[in-house]
Amino acid sequence: MIGRRALAAMLAALAVPRMAGAQTGRLPRLAIFAMTTTSPEADITENASRNFSGLFSELRRLGYEEGRTLIVERWSARGEIQRYPALARDVAGTKPDVIVTFSPLPAQALQAATATIPIVVSGSSLVQAGLADSLSRPGRNVTGVSAAFGAGEIDSKGLELLREAIPAATRIAYLAPHAYWDSVYGRPVREAASRLGVTLIATLLDDPVQPPAYRRAFATMPDLRIDTVLVAGSPENFFHRQFIVELATASRLPTINSFRDIAEVGGLMSYGIDTREQGRLIAGYIVRVLRGEKPADMPIRLMDRLELVINLKTAKALGLTIPPAILARADEVIE
Questions:
Q1: DSSP code of 331?
Q2: What phi, psi does 82 have (nearest 5°)?
Q3: CA torsion sign, 276 to 27 to 13 to 111?
């Protein structure tokens, strides 16, 4: 049975003729497939996060402004990973001109639902995830932006930084959806923990990944004698960044993650790609598709620079002294 959101979007699509070249005069339609947000209309906006800021501002700069020259439709699985296939079919059924998502997992569901609608995705290891034939020539209906690191590598590097910043930390929680632990995302982190001689404790989030799942995960940490928290670079954790910081602050636990947005709202450190630049690059791909290019012929862009952000205000609140060598490596220090 088709959902109400899918029906509404399909009716909207029928109300405006499909593009038959640029001459039809109708507005192009962009569908954004989010993973976790419970309020897509509020959470997928220019002011919601750095990546959406980059996305919408660059679209506007390139001549595509929501409500004037572009229709944007927002979809969310609301934290239920098992809903990806059905939601992907609903999104594809509305026949947007291009679909955007921010993780390989929903992109896989979307590609299974349509082999023709262009899909632009950002995430790590797009070729490894089976979404494209190669970086230089994707060969299918998916292209986009990928971190120039294997799945889980950025989190592994974050674990190393956390160990350097807080040498006394030996019991580190890995906060991640269940699917991450035994996947290509979790294995490199476990290997890094073994190499560093620390105990990595799986603190896994039940499906649906919503606030109650985070409360349950943090409630286990005192008995597990957790010293610090490695926040996995999952879309679920990104969307719940403010809530994660609130729980970590209440538990007086330092965190590191790959999203600068979390450090900006009170996480101790972040180490990852520039998500605003990521959003701008994604916008460029969207516009190229809308102007007639095919994803199969559009090389995947690699982002190979990682930035370290340290929140000294949080460090002071936790009574931590960050070693000068770590501070010297920071791209930005929040005071």
A1: S
A2: -65, -15
A3: negative
* Pick from 61, 62, 59: nearest CA to 30: 59
Supply the range of the domain harboring residue 221: 153-273+307-334
Record the pTM.
Answer: 0.85
Distance (Å, whole) CA 88 – CA 114: 9
Taking each helix axis as running N to C, give the angle between helix 275-290 and helix 50-61, from 0 to 180 degrees, rounded to the nearest 10.
40
Which residue is it, tokens 């023709």? Answer: 116
For residues 100 and 159, membership in a common domain is answered with no
At residue 231, the 3 state secondary structure works out as: strand
Q: How confident is the model at residue 235 (pLDDT cuts 50, 70, 90)?
A: confident
SS3 for 124-164 is: CCCCCCCCCCCCCCCCCCEEEEEECCCCCHHHHHHHHHHHH
Radius of gyration of the chain (CA): 20
Counted domains in the chain:
2
Q: State whether 43 and 14 are in the same domain.
A: yes
The predicted-structure confidence for 155-188, as pLDDT tens digits, reads as follows 999 999 999 999 999 999 999 998 888 888 899 9
State the alpha helices, DSSP H only, in the chain: 4-15, 40-43, 50-61, 84-93, 104-113, 153-165, 178-181, 186-196, 211-219, 221-224, 235-239, 241-251, 260-264, 275-290, 312-317, 324-329
Q: How confident is the model at residue 202 (pLDDT cuts 50, 70, 90)?
A: very high
Strand partners, 31: 73, 99
Give φ, ψ of 238 to 5 degrees: -60, -50
Q: Which two tokens stand for residue 133?
A: 């034939």
Distance CA 247, CA 214 (A): 8
CATH number for the domain spanning 193: value is 3.40.50.2300
